[in-house]
């Protein structure tokens, strides 16, 4: 850092790009040299840091300001509006403003665009955002700072393709869950499943997921070779969370026939013992929630009685299969 002067010269730009590459791409810990100082006077500061440590030898703001050249700083202020180029030909290059800005400022425009996208998607006064939407934007805001992530391109592509978002659906559900990426399909599928798992908090979230037939997709994918063990465990976690909600469990029992699905899937030899036991646990919770729902139901017409009788019969048939494998 002794030869670095934080200017627009080609040499300083190359040094800055090298430091940026080490920190943001290769994740090298730069804390030993922070706060960064430069110039000939920095040699003494770094020497004292190495000798006494960063705790005992702290760099004061006055020391950092003392490294700035007054005349060069004045020229920088007077010429800050001109295009920033490699200033090799200039006799006295100005300070590079990009080096003064924080790393987060590089993504300022993208953050503003994301906030504007969310604002334009809201079509009512003081709406309550679904958990899946709020979690999506929270994870998106964190992902913006990590362009090296394998899911970065897939998740952020919707910013270009869609001027507004549908707030009653899981964003990018089909694209991520049925990923066609050759290299990163597992990571993309795990990303969207993790989003669903963390945002499934109340029955309204279940409705949001079902607007795109999310549970049907997950149940269809579970026994296939398209998903790995990590994705299967995420699906099991989602199912367990869902059946713990009484109204959701009732819907999964009657409309999705989840108990029969468990009885069929649990026989799969590719499943581990842990997964079979977990399926059995989901089955028990589902049946218990359905019993509580039926006890508290006030409807007593013939259709309801007939439906309850059919449900009780299927439970007796499927329970033997589940108990055998668990």
From TrEMBL:
Organism encoding this protein: Nippostrongylus brasiliensis
GO CC, any one term: nucleolus
InterPro entries the UniProt entry points to: URB1, URB1_C
Protein name: Nucleolar pre-ribosomal-associated protein 1 (inferred by orthology to a human protein)
Domain (URB1 C-terminal): residue spans on this chain: 101-261
GO annotation (BP), single: maturation of 5.8S rRNA from tricistronic rRNA transcript (SSU-rRNA, 5.8S rRNA, LSU-rRNA)
Record PANTHER family: NUCLEOLAR PRE-RIBOSOMAL-ASSOCIATED PROTEIN 1 (PTHR13500:SF0), NUCLEOLAR PRERIBOSOMAL-ASSOCIATED PROTEIN 1 (PTHR13500)
Any Pfam family hit: NopRA1
């Amino acid at each position: 850092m002794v030869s670095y002067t934080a200017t627009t010269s080609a040499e300083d730009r190359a040094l800055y790009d090298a430091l940026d590459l080490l920190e943001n791409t290769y994740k090298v810990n730069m804390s030993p040299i922070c706060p960064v100082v430069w110039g000939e006077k920095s040699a003494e500061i770094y020497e004292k840091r190495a000798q006494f440590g960063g705790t005992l030898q702290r760099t004061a703001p006055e020391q950092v300001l003392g490294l700035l050249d007054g005349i060069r700083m004045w020229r920088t202020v007077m010429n800050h509006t001109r295009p920033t180029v490699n200033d090799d030909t200039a006799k006295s290059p100005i300070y590079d403003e990009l080096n003064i800005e924080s790393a987060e400022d590089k993504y300022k425009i993208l953050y503003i665009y994301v906030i504007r996208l969310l604002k334009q998607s809201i079509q009512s006064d003081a709406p309550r955002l679904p958990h899946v939407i709020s979690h999506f934007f929270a994870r998106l805001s964190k992902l913006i700072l990590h362009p090296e992530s394998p899911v970065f391109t897939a998740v952020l592509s919707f910013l270009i393709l869609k001027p507004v978002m549908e707030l009653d659906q899981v964003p990018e559900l089909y694209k991520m869950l049925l990923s066609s990426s050759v290299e990163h399909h597992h990571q993309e599928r795990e990303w969207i499943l993790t989003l669903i798992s963390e945002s499934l908090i109340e029955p309204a979230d279940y409705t949001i997921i079902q607007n795109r037939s999310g549970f049907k997709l997950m149940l269809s994918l579970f026994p296939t070779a398209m998903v790995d063990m990590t994705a299967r465990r995420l699906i099991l976690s989602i199912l367990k969370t869902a059946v713990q909600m009484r109204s959701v469990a009732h819907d999964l029992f009657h409309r999705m026939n989840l108990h029969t699905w468990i009885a069929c899937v649990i026989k799969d030899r590719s499943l581990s013992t842990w997964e079979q036991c977990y399926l059995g646990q989901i089955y028990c919770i589902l049946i218990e929630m359905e019993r509580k729902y039926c006890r508290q139901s006030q409807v007593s017409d013939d259709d309801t009685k007939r439906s309850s009788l059919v449900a009780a019969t299927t439970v007796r048939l499927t329970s033997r299969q589940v108990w055998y494998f668990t």
